[in-house]
């Protein structure tokens, strides 16, 4: 099936170069774009239950399910279908599997658990100072709670 090409500036610049295959039925930004410009939305994942009318979406369906509108891959669970599509593309010489790591900023990306990348102590007399070399490595507590609220998990630790 011929596919129209749309040029838009909503794709993140650091995503990479080249074309992006939009799947508006299953991606929130693509759904918004397709809805705004009255572009056909073809679902390719059907939920395993009937809780959502996949042919009359009010928002992108981002859950798991079985592949549909995908030719010979119809009925496959999504993960299995993706693997078989990659194998099919590889066998035809039109694509292959690759892994891209998108670590944008090493220092910021590492700040998930302990805060700053260099262990710092708050000293009541001299302010913030680096942990002395003799006390490295700092062993982090295991009794933390990951809330996803933007605050360091260390603030939830009693130890």
UniProtKB/TrEMBL annotation:
Question: Which GO MF term does the entry hold, naming one?
Answer: ligase activity
Leucyl-tRNA synthetase editing domain: from which residue to which, for each copy? Answer: 2-89
EC? 6.1.1.4
Q: Which residues form the Aminoacyl-tRNA synthetase class Ia domain?
A: 103-121
**Enzyme class (EC, first level):** ligase
Quote the SUPFAM superfamilies the UniProt record gives.
Nucleotidylyl transferase, ValRS/IleRS/LeuRS editing domain
Q: Which Pfam families match?
A: tRNA-synt_1 (PF00133), tRNA-synt_1_2 (PF13603)
Q: Any idea which UniProt keywords this protein has?
A: Aminoacyl-tRNA synthetase, ATP-binding, Ligase, Nucleotide-binding, Protein biosynthesis
Family indicated by similarity: Belongs to the class-I aminoacyl-tRNA synthetase family.
Q: What is this protein called?
A: leucine--tRNA ligase
